[in-house]
């Protein structure tokens, strides 16, 4: 509650000092009475305290039994950023996981960046470069040394399922997400459904925040309802018709990736992998682009000095901001009309103008300086920040006058671009072979390697943001778009989601209020999904939606209703064979299994595409052995269960939908 009120009050302070957003007028009413135990008046002794514990206020509010459960909870917190720091602080002050067997496992694969320090309050300048999970765990232990916490740095996904395995998930009481992307949330959502575990999610965007509770059998899942996907920028807009600074920044960011990451990675793969060219040979477009990158990186443009890098940067300037623009307006002149006679350059489409390089233009030299230093870094050469030297060397570069090709066409839409790329595939074989023959043999460059650059927005000395800003603003100058500052470019190119400490404190507090309802096993009516906008002092909650129900008629005309949380529970023991599983379904449910799969592996099918001989062998195998044989995975015999997907029919031959089949690895139980 203190975190919630603190977040709201803190935003009001920001409004007072900044004059931005609307302050609270009169009163803001917020109630969390549903967290309180329903039997408060029955036995007051359970709320009595001795006054010698930091948790006395919690005991006086919720009772000793609730505080005992809180202290023994086993949590998995995914993310140790802005929200994650708030969650860990709340766990420490609430006394969550402070007694055995309580345990908090927090994982975050990211390292602390300087830009994190203003809102991720558990971190200090000395922590920059350290793993977030480790620094946050060490910091929160100073708040409560009794906290039982283990930091991890693993990405949560399919590649870490050997770490976060069945035994790990079955031991959890709650999963709390503190993530910044939907894909990771959806993965955790699926795992929580698989293992029937509650998940509490929250997110922020500036002054806006939301929380969602996902409860086994009580609510819908996180993935049951989603926001529409964000609209991406059309390729033709990026390449030929930008009209916003966001377009030119994305274009410049793509240029950075292509020139300083993709190209050197391709070179290293070519030099180290004898089969690299064969691997990219399946697609002509990919193969051509790869060969062109290799030729540009290892051919005549391969630099031997910083002066060579300056020359390359000067030629790149000419190609990107003069030649290609001149070619575009030659193919589509300012007076161009479409098939109906309407002006082509209208609305969002604005005709560009080529830039003439000037060594006296600070923006032009900024681009040359940044591009040359990045090129030098990639090739292991010493760069320089001497603008006067760069200006002098750039002025020495002699370039022949560019003559645009009047027969060359320009794609006006993504569809046209796709069609033109397909047409260009014809007759590429000769060009591809010519490029292959022009490349130096890997054996002639033994030990030679380039350094790919990962875009790092927070280091002001590495020229990354300098390059993207200059590159973007030059393209903006081509199209008469208002340029952006380095700060604006950093925010857009680095895809920084605005985060304010007040909003993160609010949503973390709201989630932790739901924790008290969880440990008291309250009904769905007590829980709340909350939506807030501190800019207008608006906080509202809604009851979570129950899961959608499906129904199927079973043997004896019994009706079986199920949701995404339900399973067909089978406890025949780990030695039960596929045939015994089939017999079990026919005897108990009157359903015949006609197809069975485990993950992506098809274990059994009665249909013609699977040989009868193969089915005959598989019917005799025990289920764990069947999975290992067909799916080629090692089954953990200590795991609680295996999950299968089954296609079944009734005795009349009608297909019916059923939930997943949970095959328990525990000893047989005839009641199931």
UniProtKB/TrEMBL annotation:
GO terms for cellular component: cytoplasm; nucleus. It comes from Lotharella globosa. It is an enzyme of class 6 (ligase). It catalyses: ATP + ubiquitin + [E1 ubiquitin-activating enzyme]-L-cysteine = AMP + diphosphate + S-ubiquitinyl-[E1 ubiquitin-activating enzyme]-L-cysteine. Its EC number is 6.2.1.45. This is E1 ubiquitin-activating enzyme. Pathway: Protein modification; protein ubiquitination. NCBIfam families: Ube1 (TIGR01408). PANTHER family: UBIQUITIN-ACTIVATING ENZYME E1 (PTHR10953), UBIQUITIN-ACTIVATING ENZYME E1 C-TERMINAL DOMAIN-CONTAINING PROTEIN (PTHR10953:SF4). Residues 527-661 form the Ubiquitin-activating enzyme E1 C-terminal domain. Signal peptide: none annotated. The keyword Cell inner membrane does not apply. It comes from the Eukaryota.
């Amino acid at each position: 509650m203190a975190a919630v009120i603190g977040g709201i009050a803190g935003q009001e302070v920001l409004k007072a000092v900044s004059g931005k957003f609307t302050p609270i007028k009169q009163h803001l009413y917020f109630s969390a009475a549903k967290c309180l135990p329903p039997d408060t008046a029955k036995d007051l002794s359970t709320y009595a305290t001795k006054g010698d514990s930091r948790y006395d206020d919690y005991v006086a509010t919720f009772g000793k039994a609730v505080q005992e459960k809180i202290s023994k909870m086993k949590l998995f917190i995914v993310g140790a950023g802005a929200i994650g720091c708030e969650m860990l602080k709340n766990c420490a002050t609430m006394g969550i996981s402070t007694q055995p067997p309580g345990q908090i496992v927090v994982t975050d694969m990211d390292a602390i960046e300087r830009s994190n320090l203003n809102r991720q309050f558990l971190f200090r300048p000395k922590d920059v470069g350290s793993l977030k999970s480790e620094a946050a765990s060490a910091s929160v232990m100073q708040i409560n040394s009794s906290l039982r916490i283990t930091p991890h740095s693993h990405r949560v996904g399919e590649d870490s399922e050997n770490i976060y395995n069945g035994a790990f998930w079955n031991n959890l009481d709650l999963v709390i997400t503190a993530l910044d992307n939907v894909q990771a949330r959806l993965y955790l959502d699926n795992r929580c459904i698989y293992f029937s575990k509650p998940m509490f999610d929250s997110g922020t965007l500036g002054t806006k925040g939301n929380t969602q509770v996902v409860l086994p059998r009580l609510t819908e899942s996180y993935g049951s309802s989603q926001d529409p996907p964000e609209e991406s920028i059309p390729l033709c807009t990026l390449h030929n018709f930008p009209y916003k600074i966001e377009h030119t920044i994305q274009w410049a960011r793509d240029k950075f990736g292509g020139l300083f990451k993709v190209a050197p990675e391709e070179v290293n793969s070519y030099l180290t992998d004898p089969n690299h060219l064969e691997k990219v040979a399946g697609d002509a477009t990919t193969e051509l682009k790869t060969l062109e990158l290799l030729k540009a990186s290892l051919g005549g443009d391969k630099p031997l000095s910083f002066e060579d890098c300056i020359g390359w940067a000067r030629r790149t300037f000419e190609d990107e901001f003069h030649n290609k623009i001149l070619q575009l307006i030659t193919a589509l002149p300012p007076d161009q009309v479409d098939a109906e006679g309407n002006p082509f350059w209208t609305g969002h489409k604005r005709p560009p103008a080529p830039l003439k390089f000037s060594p006296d233009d600070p923006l032009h030299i900024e681009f040359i300086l940044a591009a040359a230093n990045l090129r030098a870094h990639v090739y292991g050469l010493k760069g320089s920040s001497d603008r006067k030297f760069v200006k002098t060397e750039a002025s020495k570069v002699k370039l022949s006058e560019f003559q645009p090709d009047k027969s060359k066409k320009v794609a006006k839409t993504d569809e046209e671009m796709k069609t033109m790329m397909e047409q260009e595939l014809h007759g590429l074989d000769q060009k591809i072979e010519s490029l292959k023959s022009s490349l130096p043999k890997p054996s002639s460059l033994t030990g030679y390697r380039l350094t790919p650059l990962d875009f790092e927005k927070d280091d002001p000395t590495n020229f990354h943001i300098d390059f993207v800003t200059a590159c973007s603003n030059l393209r903006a100058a081509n199209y008469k778009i208002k340029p952006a500052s380095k700060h604006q470019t950093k925010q857009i190119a680095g895809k920084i989601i605005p985060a304010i400490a007040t909003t993160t404190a609010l949503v973390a507090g709201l989630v932790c209020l739901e924790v008290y309802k969880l440990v008291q096993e309250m009904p769905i009516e007590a829980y709340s999904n909350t939506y807030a906008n501190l800019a207008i002092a608006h906080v509202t909650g809604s009851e979570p939606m129950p899961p959608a129900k499906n129904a199927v008629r079973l043997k004896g005309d019994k009706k079986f209703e199920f949701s995404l949380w339900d399973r067909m529970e089978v406890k025949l023991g780990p030695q039960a064979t596929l045939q015994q599983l089939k017999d079990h379904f026919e005897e108990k449910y009157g359903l015949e299994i006609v197809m069975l799969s485990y993950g992506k592996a098809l274990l059994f099918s009665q249909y013609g595409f699977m040989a009868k001989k193969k089915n005959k062998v598989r019917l005799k195998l025990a289920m764990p052995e069947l999975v290992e044989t067909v799916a080629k995975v090692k089954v953990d015999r200590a795991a609680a269960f295996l999950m299968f997907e089954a296609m079944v029919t009734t005795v009349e031959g009608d297909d019916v939908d059923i939930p997943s089949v949970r095959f328990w690895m525990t000893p047989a139980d005839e009641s199931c």
